[in-house]
Amino acid sequence: MLTFIIRRLVQAVIVMLAVALIAFTLFRFVGDPVNQMVGQDTTPAQRETLRERLGLHDTVLVQSGRFVVHAAHFDFGNSYQFKQPVSGLIGSRLPATFELSITSALFALLVGIPMGWAFIPGSTGPQSSPSSSRRSR
C-alpha cells in the first residue's frame, strides 16, 4: 500500500511538472511580454531595461526553472492587464468558482441518480420506465 501511494505521488509530481512546462512554453512563445506591458511611445532603452528586470535575457532553461519555482510558491507575478498580483485576482474569484462547482455537482447528482435509477436495465426503478420496455423484448 505504501509503495502504491509513493508511486502515485511521484506520478502526480511528474504530471504537475509537465503541465507547468507546457504552460511556460505557451506563455513564453506567444509573444514578447514587454510589448504587451508598455505602450508604443516607450523607448528601446526602456524596453531593454524592462526585459532585463523580467529576466528575459536568461536562457529558456533558467526561465522555466524560475517559472516552476515561483509557481510552486504560488507567486504568479503581476497581471499585465490589471497591474495587480495574479494570486490576489485568483483569490478574489475563488468564492464564485466554489459556488459554481458545488452547484454543478449537486445538479449532476440530482439529475444523474434518478436517471440512472430509471433507465438502467435491471435497476429497481419503476416498471413504467423506459428500462422496462427494453426488458420485455
Report on this model:
With 137 residues, this protein is mostly helical. The protein folds into 2 domains: 1-73, no CATH class; 84-137. The protein has 6 helices and no strands. It has helices spanning 2-29, 33-37, 44-54, 60-72, 86-119, 130-135. Helix 1 (2-29) packs across helix 4. The longest helix has 34 residues, at 86-119. The protein is elongated and about 75 Å long. The two termini are 47 Å apart. 1% of the residues are buried. The model has no long low-confidence stretch (mean pLDDT 85).
Helix vs. strand class: mainly alpha
Fraction of residues in helices? over 70%
| Beta-strand percentage range | under 5%
Biggest sheet statistics: none
Tally of individual domains: 2
- Mass-distribution shape: elongated
Low-pLDDT residue intervals, each spanning 5 or more residues: none
From N to C, what is the helix and strand string? HHHHHH
State the end-to-end CA separation. 47 Å
Estimated radius of gyration: 25 Å
- Tell how many strands the DSSP assignment holds: 0
Instruction: Count up the helices.
Output: 6
